[in-house]
């Protein structure tokens, strides 16, 4: 005798007032539209996203995994720099979950989702921590409160309550009172993901999306393949 399942099929959050998922119809992607270098291609797409008023296109999911357990963790961060060396985000590297993951496993992944354009970009590769000198350049562009916050927050550590955090901030404010040039904390800085794989994804109807994957060869050159959706 069969047992009634408690399984629930969720209604898609589309705009067509039906039980079917929303269709992607805003574009297509073909090989002849892609540039030879994926970082240059990313910059082209990113500039287009800015021009089309995509909401915070620099928002990206950073995924890391701890070894030997293999436990994966992911969080939303802001992309702050990109060049031929890779994609850069900033964080606390003493106490954060991502710092512990990277210490045991230097591989990371980034995922951008630009809903307004129905586009996705995925990046995978090893990561490296940037020098204090490199990190200071970005750190100096942050508002004072954010610079002090980097000193105060023991990221991902347990707090008794909000008052404990605010007390830590007050201590840092006293330490740097009247000081505008604040040094970057030795435990805080940039993480560069050096791309070995970059995928560009354009939504298409019926889930038959266009996907192109760049993979870096041993000689540094890039190979491009179309992937099945």
Automatic annotation (TrEMBL):
UniProt xrefs under Pfam families: PNP_phzG_C, PNPOx_N
EC number of this enzyme: 1.4.3.5
Required cofactor(s): FMN
The UniProt record lists the keyword Iron: no
GO terms, biological process: pyridoxine biosynthetic process
Major enzyme class: oxidoreductase
Keyword Oxidoreductase: yes
Keywords of this entry: Flavoprotein, FMN, Oxidoreductase
Protein name per the record: pyridoxal 5'-phosphate synthase
Native organism: Baudoinia panamericana (strain UAMH 10762)
């Amino acid at each position: 005798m069969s047992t009634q399942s408690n399984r629930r099929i969720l209604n898609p959050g589309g705009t067509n007032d039906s039980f079917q998922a929303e269709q992607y119809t805003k574009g297509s992607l073909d090989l002849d539209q892609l540039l030879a270098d994926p970082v240059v291609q990313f910059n082209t797409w990113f500039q287009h996203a800015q021009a089309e008023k995509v909401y915070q296109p620099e928002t990206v999911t950073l995924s890391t995994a701890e070894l030997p357990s293999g436990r994966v963790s992911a969080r939303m961060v802001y992309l702050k720099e990109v060049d031929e060396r890779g994609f850069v985000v900033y964080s606390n590297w003493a106490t954060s979950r991502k710092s512990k993951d990277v210490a045991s496993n230097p591989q990371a992944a980034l995922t951008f989702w630009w809903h307004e354009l129905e586009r996705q970009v995925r990046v995978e590769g090893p990561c490296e921590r940037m020098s204090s000198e490199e990190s200071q350049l970005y750190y100096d562009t942050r508002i004072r409160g954010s610079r002090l916050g980097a000193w105060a927050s023991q990221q991902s550590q347990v707090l008794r309550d909000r008052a404990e955090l605010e007390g830590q901030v007050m201590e840092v404010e006293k330490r740097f009172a009247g000081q505008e040039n604040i040094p970057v904390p030795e435990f805080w800085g940039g993480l560069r993901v050096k791309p070995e794989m970059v995928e560009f994804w354009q939504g298409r109807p019926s889930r038959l999306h266009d996907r192109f994957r760049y993979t870096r060869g041993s000689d540094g050159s890039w190979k491009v393949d179309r992937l099945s959706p």
